[in-house]
Amino acid sequence: QVQLVASGGGLVQAGGSLRLSCASSGGTSSTRTTAWFRQAPGTEREFVAYISWGTPNTRYADAVKDRFAISRDNAQNTVYLQTNDLKAEDTAVYYCAATQPYYRGNSRDPDQYRFWGQGTRVTVST
Q1: How far apart are CA 46 and CA 115, in angstroms?
Q2: Which of 56, 62, 76, 79 is deepest in the core (most CB within 10 A)?
């Protein structure tokens, strides 16, 4: 059974940076698409970024493109989300999620993800 542990959140001033980590155990992260989603109070969970299995492709939500970067360390079975130039509207709980191995489909759809981490809170102060 795959387990995901998200970490790295915290309180940061607007314009600052955080690196979120999603450590995977019980499976190989390089064979699964891994994504970050976020949920702010009173809103639905929204897609942030994903990195595909194999030779990775990455995609981002328009709101974070050019500010966030997703990457994977296969040796550490860990996926990272580098968040830069943080804004108040980035405040949310960030969740990492992983698909079944060799998934092909809509990687922006949270319903396609079988395994979820517990979430890490990011708060951006202005």
Answers
A1: 16
A2: 79
47, two tokens:
């897609």
* Three-class HEC string of the chain: CCEEEEECCEEEECCCCEEEEEEEECCCHHHCCEEEEEECCCCCCEEEEEECCCCCCEEECCCCCCCEEEEEECCCCEEEEEECCCCHHHCEEEEEEECCCCCCCCCCCHHHCCEECCCEEEEEEC
pLDDT band at 122 (very low <50, low <70, confident <90, very high): very high
Q: Residue range 21-46: average pLDDT?
A: 93
* Four-point Cα dihedral 8, 11, 16, 18, nearest 10: 0
Residues whose CB is less than 8 angstroms from the CB of residue 62 and which lie 6 or more positions away in sequence, other chains included: none
Q: What are the pLDDT digits (tens) for 53-94?
A: 988 899 999 999 999 999 999 999 999 999 999 999 999 999
